[in-house]
Amino acid sequence: MADADEDLIHAPANASAQPEVDLSDETQDFRFLNHLNFFADSSPGIPRRGEKDFEPNPTELQADVLSASRGAMHNALSYPRLHGAKTRVIAFYAPDGYVPPAQPGRAKPKAGGEDGKEDGKSSESTPKPARPLPNSARISPDACVYVPSPKGQFFKTMGQADSSSRVWLLPEEALYLIERGSLDIRWPSPSASAAGPGEEDLSVPMSLQAAYTCFMGRGGLTLERYSVYTGLKRLGYALFRAPGWCDDMEQQDAAVSDASELTSPELHGPGLAGMLGSLFNWIHDPRSTASTATGPIIGTGIHRHYMDVYRKLAIIPWYDPVTAPERHPSDTTPPFRVVFHIYKPSTPLKKSALPTPDFRIAVVSTRDQTTMPTMTELGALLESTPLDPPRGEKMDRMMYMRLRHGYRNVVMAVVDQGVVSYLRIADSAFGKEKLYENKGGPQGPKRNRTNQKPRKR
Amino acid sequence: MMATPVTTMDKTVAAKSGPASDARPPRAPRPPRPNFRQIHQFPLPVNVHHVPPVIPHNPLSLISVVLSYLTFLISPPRQEVYSAYFDKATSSIHVTDERSINALWQMGFFGKGSLSRSEPSWLAREKKRRGLHNGKTSEEITRLRRTERRELKLERARMEKLAIEERLKAEAAAREAGASESLDQAAQSTPTGDTTNVTAAATEKFSLKKAKEARALEAKQARELAAQNAALAGQNQPETSSNSKSVRFSPVVQKKEFLSTSPSSLQLPDSVISNLDADDFPNEEHLQLSNEEAFFLAYSLGALQIYDSHLKSGEIQSTSPTTTAALLQQFCHHSFQPARDASASLQPDDPFMISYTVYHHFRSLGWVIRSGVKFGTDYLLYNRGPVFSHAEFAVVIIPSYSHPYWSETEERKNYTAEKQARSWWWMHCVSRVQAQVLKSLVVCYVEVPPPAASLDDIGALFGQYKVREFLIKRWIPNRTRD
After folding, report:
1. What is the pLDDT of residues B344-387, one digit of tens each?
2. Strands across the sheet with B368-371, in order?
3. Contact check, Cβ <8 Å, A422/B244
């Protein structure tokens, strides 16, 4: 199974020791699979891939390498994948969504994980309708699979526990777990109630195909969103649904607030010398001959400084992301809406109190939305994210970095028939960086760069 | 034991072989760069007269300030105004006066030489070609670099081919021997002494640097092979050439290399040179300004006068320069292909209006903004100028029709939807190209206002547009994981 390298990703101590390997950028050399020990916990880490041959040549060496790779792949695939007795997790499908625990005094499983502890004190819940219960408020109405006795690391970042410490899984979470072979989902048994004591023996396991049929399309889960979810999940990220998940959120105020205005360049108060200077400036003020109607904008008089010239040139209004009002997520156009909050594997997480996400992601299907967003759509998407101005010593120093970072940012996953391209979109305000005020020259001498990588002008 | 005969053979073969197979001499150090800081010290073609500093405790400084003002009062310095003409055929502005060309290029990097890559350098290149001038123009440096790189790539391909051939030979030998020993051992047992080197190298790939290093070795191997082939009377020759990729220098590359390494060989015969007078040939090149650049110079800076037709320098200017309002009309009409009729009314979303808005925006912030057509974008942004640093940002422009006017009728809605539509494929193409050339992609949306009532006030007209920049970059989840 592919668990060995995934487990490594999840273990931050181990992962940090590894050199950074971008697996997707390297060529696929499956011979490395032979060196993986699927049983031992002390696996040496993610192996490096091999080198790339660009075209076939008639050497036996290449043929050997090819057949060895093929053999390794077959070998890895032919390995029997089983639910181990120790790690086996059984879940039940609840087609009607969340149902509160049937018996209030039902015995809790002894092996309740971390999530069980969270809800330990709220075990005296009564079988009232589910939604109003305070302790079950966190359980999404879209959840449709529950795990009576959760164990294993997956439930650190997935699922919501209810009052009887059952963990409820959202469709994408259940599908992801069943797809990677970490969950055994059972159909609800037709006769007995779901909470019957002998349920495990009677219930029928759900196939992967059935899982796709049941979960895809349920509660707003599209194939595109699932591709993004599972892709990032496998890379070790933790993903949670964002408030913008539902497309049919009611529009609160459709009126586009156009409060943002051009910030006119501020002129600093003049000192004594400045006042004297302005007096003299008055004699030959280019402004007297300046005309924006027919030009020249800067006038024909004597210019004292290039800064003044540039200040006079600023006639084009620009958008200032700082003064723009923040929008509610519902105030966006559906495909361009944050649907997932993403956390890096290294971010410490607590499901009950999620920190600020590391990334926010919107998922767009190129077949439904064939064109790039318009400025209104893209602007609304960015304004629904919190302000994240460039900060820090490095950012203060480097103007290019500030511009690249921007004031707000969002990741857009463009899914084209299963192929996901991620684009980071940042709201960078070039108008806030007055290049002409920069005393220092360019960011670095050109010569230093030439020995890094040939770069075109 | 093998060493001595090989070296002697080396010499004989080297003597016989042509110049192409010889290792090229090491590259000569580049000539010192001109002082760009000095040449391009002014960011705009506008004269600026600094006020002498006022030092409060030194009354003399005050006097110097007053003096400087008095001199300006008596004889105000004149702002240089350059002249150019509009060429309808290319729908661009031509500057033919030598002094204006230099001024516009040096102060703000406006325009491009009609016969050059960017800086007008045709005259220098031509002089050099005629042997009147030495020193390298930027075109030549670039060409040299490209030739070098291409040659190295060919070299790498040749090395790979050689390694494969050696490998094949070794495998064939192993098969013949029928022994169970490994291929590497078989390779060692082949008659040629140096093949182990090659087979060892075959297992790893060749970087360009490696190709460079291996060049000398490779030349030696090739000569050996040639000698062997001659000795074996072409026994292996047809076999190897039939089942492997043939790599050779294209005649173009050879010619170019020839040109760049030994320019003297291309010089005209001495008799011809002596006939030519050093400065007797005219400069055939002119500076070409894009319409945005020209409008910026004319309207914003007042540093350019544009005439309708080309006048010889000696002629008296009979016509007056085009007014900025007429210029705007003209440029807007010429922003379509073919140019619109002069009677057509101006639309707020004429391509020129939008592109000039962006041009002016970035110029007014201090960027040197030049066409990005080489990278498939609308503009490139340089910090200070192309001679100082590479462009960091590439700008593409997308109009935006968010004003309610544009969604009033169904017809307008369809029109604007078509105008702002950009496909995802286009977006990916642009962003991948920019990543390849290490530039950051800026998608610049320009908010188009409803049609204006009057076109008299150009400043007010452009004041209605609004610019918003988004920086779009590929996000690679593997790299941001920490």
Report:
1. 788 888 999 999 999 999 999 999 999 999 999 999 999 988 98
2. A238-241, A338-343, A359-365, A409-416, A419-427, B466-474, B440-447, B393-400, B379-382, B368-371
3. no
Contact of B78 with chain A, judged by CB distance below 8 Å, is answered with: no
Of B368, B359, B353, the closest CA to residue B451 belongs to: B353
Parallel/antiparallel/unpaired status of strands B368-371 and B112-113? unpaired
Is B306:B84 a contact under the CB 8 Å cutoff? yes
B382 catalytic, yes or no? yes
Point out the residue among A23, A293, A304 whose CB comes nearest to the CB of B458: A293
Across the interface, whether the CB atoms of A235 and B398 are under 8 A apart is answered no
Assign B284 a pLDDT band (cuts: 50, 70, 90): confident
Q: Which of A23, A277, A293 sits opposite B457 (nearest CB)?
A: A293
Q: Does A222-262+317-457 carry CATH code 3.40.50.2300?
A: no
The residue extents of the domains of chain A are 3-52+61-77, 90-221, 222-262+317-457, 272-306
Q: How far apart are CA B465 and CA A315, in angstroms?
A: 10
Residue B157, number of CB atoms within 10 A of its CB: 15
pLDDT of B111 strictly over 50? yes
**Residue of chain B nearest A292, judged by CA positions:** B459
- Give me the pLDDT at residue A243, please: 87
Region of poorest pLDDT, from A170-174, B15-19, B34-38, B137-141: B15-19
Residue of A nearest to B431 (CA): A423
For B20-88, strand residue ranges (E) read 82-87
**What's the pTM?**
0.73
Q: Which residues pair with A398 in a beta bridge?
A: none
CA–CA min distance A136, chain B (Å):
32
Residue B390 a catalytic site member: yes
Q: Average of pLDDT values for B237-256?
A: 41
Considering only alpha carbons, which residue of chain A is nearest residue B205?
A51
- Provide the 8-state DSSP code for A205: B
| Cross-chain Cβ contact A316/B357 below 8 Å | yes
Contact A231 B400 (CB under 8 A): no
Q: What is the pLDDT of residue A203?
A: 80
B1 touches chain A (CB under 8 A): no
Tell me what pLDDT residue A374 has: 92
B110 vs B119: CA distance, rounded Å: 9
Whether A59 sits inside 8 A of B164 (CB atoms) is: yes
In the structure, what pLDDT confidence band is assigned to residue B187 with cuts at 50, 70 and 90?
Answer: very low
In this predicted model, which residue has the larger pLDDT, B246 or B294? B294
Residue range B422-443, pLDDT digits in tens? 999 999 999 999 999 999 999 9
The verdict on a CB contact (< 8 Å) between A60 and B171 is yes
Which residue of chain A comes nearest to B326, CA vs CA? A294
* pLDDT tens digits for range A177-197: 999 888 999 998 765 544 444
Query: Bridge partners of B364?
Result: none
pLDDT of residue A282: 52
The CA-atom distances, in angstroms, between A436 and each of A123, A263, B430 are 66, 17, 28
CB atoms within 10 A of CB B43: 21
**CA A243 to each of CA A137, A223, A240, A361, B403: distance values in angstroms, whole numbers, following the listed order:** 15, 19, 10, 12, 29
Q: Which of B299, B382, B445, B465 is catalytic?
A: B382
Rounded to the nearest angstrom, the minimum Cα separation between A455 and chain B is: 6
Q: Catalytic: B255?
A: no
Q: Looking at the predicted structure, is the pLDDT value of residue A293 above 50? A: yes
Count how many residues are written for chain B.
Answer: 482
Alpha-carbon span B395 to B470, nearest angstrom: 10
Contact A284, B72 (CB under 8 A): yes
Neighbour tally for A233: CB within 10 Å: 22
Check whether A163 has a pLDDT greater than 50: yes
Contact B467 A424 (CB under 8 A): no
Q: State how beta strands A409-416 and B112-113 pair.
A: unpaired
